[in-house]
Amino acid sequence: MHLRMPSSFVCVSGRDILLRPTYARVDLDAIEQNYLMLCRAAGDAEVAGVVKGNAYGHGLTQVSHTLAEAGAKNFAVATVEEGVALRTDGIRGRIIILGTLLPWQADEVVACRLSPAVCTPAAVCALERAALHAGVTACAHLAIDTGMHRIGVREDKDITAMLDTFTACPHVKMEGLFSHFAAADGNVMFTNLQINRFRSVWFEADRRGFKPIKHIANSSGMLRFELAQFDLVRPGIALYGASVNALCPELVPAQRLTTRPMRIARLNAGESVGYGRAYVMPEDGLIMTLPIGYGDGYPRILGSRACVL
């Protein structure tokens, strides 16, 4: 099954009419195949399909339903809005919000049964109030900053304060304890340092009586560091068949960007192309103009360096 998302179209008399021949073709079968392959690679660990950022541009709800039909019970998003969208569209299972919770978002998170990252006592207390009001138990994942420096608790005193806050908030379950690798694709020494830092917090939480799901491994982490798979892994870019293909050649690219030329012209050697005369023809040859640009999400930085088949 394929999801075809034209970059620009209108509906006339029930027919979709392409205004220009530029579209991204998303192969949901490839995403399902990648997910099942990653489940095999994860061993005993559960797999959370990372669908943040509109599933890396592949379609948040479409990809999530594909993963759910393939057996996925865990999903990871970046924001509360993405989590709410999945619940509204009928996605069940655990939805982890990898971006930290802001206190005023607690009511919506509890109402939608989401599992947010927390790294401040205020966030846990806000969840406690919302859960108490709703008559339920909220779930949260304690974020530990082991070296990525994006979000998370870092200092020992702050970690102790978070554990104390969870203890004082009986309506908030520490469902997960997690961190994020910064350089698992190449820096073995730093990755091992992050694992050791994470384990030290894990052992302290265990000593205090907490039994959370432990997770730290992203795509590169789960494929390169089997001992870091723990209870759950979070493959993101690997789901879509990109970036880590050398680690797992079985992955299938899930998106193709397709267009047709609007103009083909012959230029002479020495003539230039584009703003700032960015390219000068080294010899006589053909140039081609394609109807796609940065307004479609095509990065300008690819100018004079990208390849087109």
Q: Termini distance?
A: 24 Å
Which series of helices and strands comes N to C? EEEEHEHHEHEHEHEHEHEHEEEEEE
Sheet with the most strands: spatial strand order: 11-10-9-8-7-6-5-12
Q: Share of helix among residues?
A: 25-40%
Describe this structure in words.
The chain has 309 residues and is of the alpha/beta class. It is 32% helix and 24% strand. It contains 9 helices and 17 strands. The protein has an 8-stranded parallel beta sheet. Helix 5 links the parallel strand 7 and strand 8. The longest helix has 20 residues. The N terminus is likely disordered.
Structure at a glance:
This protein is an alpha/beta fold. It is 32% helix and 24% strand. The model is unreliable at 1-15 (pLDDT under 50).
Which helices and strands occur, and which strands form pairs?
Layout: E1 2-6, E2 9-12, E3 15-18, E4 23-27, H1 28-41, E5 46-50, H2 52-57, H3 60-69, E6 74-77, H4 80-88, E7 94-100, H5 106-111, E8 115-118, H6 121-134, E9 138-143, H7 156-168, E10 172-178, H8 188-207, E11 213-215, H9 219-224, E12 232-233, E13 255-258, E14 263-267, E15 272-273, E16 279-280, E17 285-289
Helix pairs in contact: 1-3
